[in-house]
Amino acid sequence: MSETPQASAGTQDESSPRSDSGGGGARKIVLYGLLGLMVAALAYDYLVARPAVNTAYDQIAEASMAANRKGAGFLSNEQVRELIGKQPVETFNDGRYTVEVFHWPGGLIVKPHKLYAVYMKNGDGLMFNRHAKFVYEAADIVTPDRPIASAPDDEPPASYDEEEMAGGGGGGGGGGRPESEGDAENGSGDEEADNTASEAASGQPPARPEPEDETKE
Asked: Within 13 Å and on the Cβ side, how many CA atoms surround 22?
């Protein structure tokens, strides 16, 4: 005997909640899976990828200091490649510098971590100059070429007073009495001394002015 419409409707109502619960469980599984991938990517990024870049950076720095201590030769780009065990994925020029870029895969595959090795031309090879990790700064930012400021041309000359003070006042310097005045005074004093000496040698008293006669009118 066929089911009545009421019975069939009740059967559909009982089956629909089961289908909803199954779909919600699948969505939760997908969300938890994505969350787990994000956590794993962050863990790999900060525990593996970044430390690998830091290690390579430190290795290059130590090799560069060792080459400087020897005082002979230099750290070349070929030696840097052998040291970190990688080949550059990109090379570009920054003014007179040549930059090689090395990649390390990060937690996000589309965004790798980078290390930049900067070289200068030395004969037929490239000599290591500096390096950077994660972010590159252009040469004009790291070592800007600033012009040397020249002395101003409109500086006023020293005044006459300063020149006289610098001369010390001796040897014809300023601040003294004119030579002609001193000679004139010395000459008049010598004449008076000569007259007194000649009168004393002749034995005659010096001439005195005669008093006027008060009786005469």
From this structure: 5
